[in-house]
Write a structure and sequence with these properties.
The complex is a heterodimer. Chain A is an alpha/beta fold. Chain A starts with 14 loop residues before the first strand and ends in a 14-residue tail after the last strand. Helix content of chain A is 27%, strand content 24%. Chain A has a domain of 187 residues: 3-Layer(aba) Sandwich (Rossmann fold), CATH 3.40.50. Chain A contains ten helices and twelve strands. In chain A, the strands form two sheets. Chain A has an eight-stranded mixed beta sheet, sandwiched between helices. Chain A has a four-stranded antiparallel beta sheet with strand order 2-1-4-5. Chain B is mainly α. Helices cover 60% and strands 3% of the residues of chain B. Chain B has a three-stranded antiparallel beta sheet with strand order 2-1-3, with no helix packed on it. In chain B, helix 6 packs antiparallel against helix 12. Chain B is elongated. Chain B starts with 17 loop residues before the first helix and ends with a helix. Classes of the chains: A alpha/beta, B mainly alpha. Chains A and B meet through helix 2, strand 6, helix 4, helix 6 and helix 7 of A and helix 11 and helix 12 of B.
């Protein structure tokens, strides 16, 4: 039933998702008249693009805006500024009705399967609702389609009748993936899909997602705080800090090519797989600045070991440093400016 | 590849929804269960009142045709013309005209709307105790000042008590849940406006409004009262629903539903309401008890709608003048009101414990 997707889009655009200077600020209400008294700068002008079939990772510590980026990207939040272009069409401010056809193509797997599955819906009911709502298959085929889907994510047939609380964490995440894939999406945003799971199950779910990617042929934005997981899983990664992308680099040999001091600090925080191989630890001092009131210039200025006077004056532009690698740091790109590019 | 067996659930529970779990817990509470059975029994009494006490046969055969005269208690037109004809003379004509005729009579041959005279129908008793008769074999709960049978009045009054509870709380639930859901789901200006509306309605004293409505309406009846109780009694439910919606709409499964493109109404009523319903059920049960009390109170004051319709409250009211002689006019309807209100409160309490999310999480 889950046949390979018909290739209806004739000239498949190479770039599936393009994000241009995306900004998301959350107003903070307070005071007597409930006025806006502050803004949380969650995403501050992020620019990147995702090619069809690619897995792009987003890494960063808690509160760096990576989840907000993912949710804004699929229009769960209204973008404050910037552009989101999906498959050549701008979807930045599409109204609910116009967004509908895209909902079928863009899906999300959430972090915590305990809260992202409605406790009053059985697995089958949950999938049935989605499949029928978007009319994925003819009505009479729904049953077989769901059975097949459930099997594809590695759940038993009898799971269809079960409710979320009767599953284990890993099974719940499988169900959550099944729900996202039920509409046969082209683009999946996975928001920390394995962070709430045991390490042993993390690997299972990641492998499952890789298998399913082959099967369903989708493009993915993979959000995680775990540099190692992203490095293993993705083709390319974006390192985020306080709402900015500070470095973009290809995955694989990141320990050798990472240039931004923050990326290097993240690498240092990861325990090495070989304990005899000691590497220099860059321990970050201080706290992440408050997103209510981010520092002027580079967001990393308060903790950066390579800080220069220029850093607190001007935000360094994200400049290409090597093929496929872009870094936003004055220390790495001393002479270059955005204008010179 | 995926190994589903590696992470199967430790306990192999049978697939069970939230409500079946709640029902299991509810069933363990003996008092709540007894109350539920009592209410179910009362509903049966209300439904089959003409078959329990009445002077019209439930079913009779006359000249080859089957008739259901007892339906006449529910609606005058449903009483078959043939039986009305015969009854005019209160004679034994039926047997004389058609020796093969037969009739199945209600359990108790007594009428809530009139005094049954001796020898009205061959083989059926009258009111031997007459006016203000004490409970006896034929008048189980005695008779009132007009000689009407108290038991028959109570049986037929059950309908009023049940209806008041269900109809008024039905109106209140629909209003309260939808207004609370709208306010909680959309928030912002809608929430501000609806919350002020809730506060406004909370300020209206129900009793005074009912009294004025009954005074203004030309032919006040029990339905006016139910509507007024309903449209003033939804505020608590609305506040509760609003709170639940505000809490639940932040959960990730609602976000997931939005990501799937489901419509707002679908998310509100299919996804959020399902989870918000359990805590709302509890005050509904208490509200039914409250509505029954209001109705009894108003009937006691003598403003409970048209006179012929018997209700427990109006029986109590009738007892006022002759309190010293007629204890049965107080004790039986009073006990019925007390037990019914108590039963609804017990059901509410049982629901509260059965649907407690903490108990659900820990799996008792």
């Amino acid at each position: 039933m889950i046949a390979p997707k018909p290739t209806t889009k004739e000239p498949a655009l190479d770039t599936l998702v393009k994000v241009d200077n995306l900004v998301k600020h959350f107003p903070v209400h307070g005071g007597l008249l409930n006025r806006v008294i502050a803004k949380v700068h969650a995403v501050n002008g992020v620019t990147f693009s995702i090619k069809r079939g690619e897995i792009v990772g987003v890494v960063g510590e808690s509160g760096c805006g990576k989840s907000t980026l993912g949710k804004t990207l699929i229009r769960l939040f209204e973008p404050t500024a910037g552009k989101i272009i999906y498959d050549g069409r701008e979807i930045t401010h599409l109204a609910h009705g116009y967004m509908m056809p895209f909902r079928k193509h863009i899906q999300m797997v959430f972090q915590d399967p305990n809260s992202s599955l409605n406790p009053r819906y059985s697995a089958g009911a949950m999938l049935r609702e989605v499949v029928r709502f978007h009319q994925i298959v003819p009505h009479h085929e729904t049953r077989d389609y769901i059975r097949e889907l459930v099997a594809k994510v590695g759940l038993h047939d009898d799971a269809i009748e079960k409710y979320p609380h009767e599953f284990s964490g890993g099974q719940r995440q499988r169900l959550s993936i099944a729900r996202a894939l039920a509409v046969r999406p082209d683009f999946v945003v996975a928001d920390e899909p394995v962070s709430s799971l045991d390490v042993s199950i993390q690997a299972q779910i990641l492998n499952l997602m890789l298998d399913l990617k082959e099967d369903f042929d989708f493009t993915m934005l993979f959000i995680s705080h775990d540099l190692k997981v992203v490095n293993y899983f993705c083709d390319r990664m974006l390192v985020m800090y306080l709402g900015y992308v500070v470095e973009e680099l290809p995955c694989g040999e990141i320990e050798h090519i990472a240039r931004h001091p923050y990326t290097q600090a993240l690498l240092g925080a990861n325990p090495a797989s070989d304990p005899t191989q000691r590497h220099e630890l860059t321990v970050l001092e201080g706290e992440v600045p408050s997103p209510y009131n981010p520092p002027r210039g580079c967001p990393f200025v308060t903790r950066c070991p390579l800080v220069e006077p220029r850093c607190s004056q001007e935000m360094p532009p994200l400049l290409e440093n090597a093929p496929g690698q872009r870094v936003a740091c004055w220390a790495v790109n001393p002479q270059r400016t955005a204008a010179a590019e | 590849m995926s190994q589903p067996s590696a992470e199967t659930n430790s306990k192999n529970t049978v697939a069970a929804g939230f409500w079946s779990e709640a029902w299991k817990r509810f069933r363990r509470r003996k008092l709540a269960m007894a109350a539920l059975i009592y209410v179910a029994a009362l509903s049966c009494v209300a439904l089959f009142a003409p078959a329990i006490a009445g002077t019209k046969p439930i079913i009779c055969k006359y000249k080859g045709s089957i008739y259901f005269p007892a339906l006449g208690y529910l609606r005058r037109q449903w009483e078959n013309p043939i039986f009305l004809e015969i009854r005019k003379e209160y004679s034994t004509r039926m047997k004389e005209e058609d020796p093969d005729s037969w009739a199945v009579w209600p359990l108790v041959y007594q009428d809530p709307y009139r005094r049954v005279k001796e020898g009205e129908w061959p083989g059926q008793p009258g009111n031997p105790s007459g006016i203000m008769g004490a409970p006896s074999r034929h008048n189980l709960f005695g008779t009132d000042q007009q000689g009407y049978d108290v038991f028959a009045q109570m049986v037929h009054g059950t309908k009023t008590a049940m209806l008041v509870g269900f109809v008024s709380m039905g109106i209140a639930s629909v209003l309260g849940i939808s207004i609370g859901a709208l306010a909680g789901y959309f928030g912002g200006v809608i929430d501000i406006v609806l919350s002020r509306l809730i506060e406004l309605v909370m300020c209206i004293p129900t009793l005074v409004l009912i009294l004025s409505v009954l005074a203004v309406v030309e032919e006040p009846n029990i339905w006016h009262m139910m509507v007024v109780i309903g449209i003033t009694g939804w505020t608590g439910l609305a506040r509760l629903t609003r709170g639940e919606f505000m809490k639940l709409k932040e959960l990730e499964y609602v976000t997931a539903a939005r990501a799937l493109g489901l419509s707002g109404t679908r998310i509100m009523f299919r996804h959020i309401l399902r989870n918000a319903l359990a805590p709302v059920l509890v005050p509904i049960a208490f509200g039914i008890a409250g509505a029954i009390l209001i109705e009894s109170g108003l009937s006691f004051l003598g403003v409970g709608g048209e006179a012929p319709n018997p209700s427990w409250g109006s029986l109590l009211s009738a007892a006022r003048n002759t309190l010293e002689e007629t204890w049965w006019l107080v004790v039986f309807p009073g006990t019925a009101i007390f037990l019914t209100v108590l039963a609804y409160n017990l059901i509410g309490e049982g629901l509260q414990e059965a649907t407690d999310p903490r108990l659900t999480q820990s799996g008792h």
